[in-house]
Design a protein that fits this description.
Helix content is 16%, strand content 38%. By secondary structure, it is an alpha/beta fold. The two termini are 28 Å apart. It has two domains: 1-61, 2,3-Dihydroxybiphenyl 1,2-Dioxygenase, domain 1 (Roll), CATH 3.10.180; 75-127, 2,3-Dihydroxybiphenyl 1,2-Dioxygenase, domain 1 (Roll). Keywords: Metal-binding. InterPro entries: Fosfomycin_Res_Enzymes, Glyas_Bleomycin-R_OHBP_Dase, Glyas_Fos-R_dOase_dom, VOC_core, YwkD-like_dom. GO terms for molecular function: metal ion binding.
Length: 127
């Protein structure tokens, strides 16, 4: 098996409209397609970052809350950036919950965690 690349990351939002707006405003994602799936009472939107399809955003009625970022499963989604500190300042300006810049102990590179409207941990990594 030869994998070519990551095709998408799927996220279930508690408030689809708020999360869709947040991913567009804060991360600069572009909404490519959106469909309401009546049989599941669920919205699904495809969001692209820099023209590349990346995030499937879903709504599901009564979806359970994730107990902790340390729970089994996908831990976080990371984005490569040129300047973590500058990006942090932009996030703070937009009143996004962010942690302090850290140094990855394995690579020596700057990184930080920030959180979407549902508290999903996202990472910026200086690459």
């Amino acid at each position: 098996m030869k994998l070519k690349r990551v095709h998408h990351i799927a996220i279930i939002a508690s408030d689809y409209e708020a999360s869709k707006a947040w991913y567009q405003r804060v991360l600069g994602c572009e909404l490519l397609t959106e469909v309401y799936r009546a049989e599941r009472d669920s919205w699904m939107g495809d969001l692209a970052l820099n023209g590349e399809y990346l995030i499937e955003l879903f709504s599901f009625p009564n979806a359970p809350v994730r107990p902790s970022p340390e729970a089994q499963g996908l831990r976080h989604l990371a984005f490569a950036v040129d300047d973590v500190a500058a990006c942090r300042a932009e996030l703070v300006e937009q009143q996004v919950r962010v942690e302090e810049v850290r140094i990855d102990p394995h690579t020596g590179r700057k990184m930080l965690f920030f959180f979407d409207p549902d508290g999903l941990p996202l990472e910026l990594y200086e690459a």
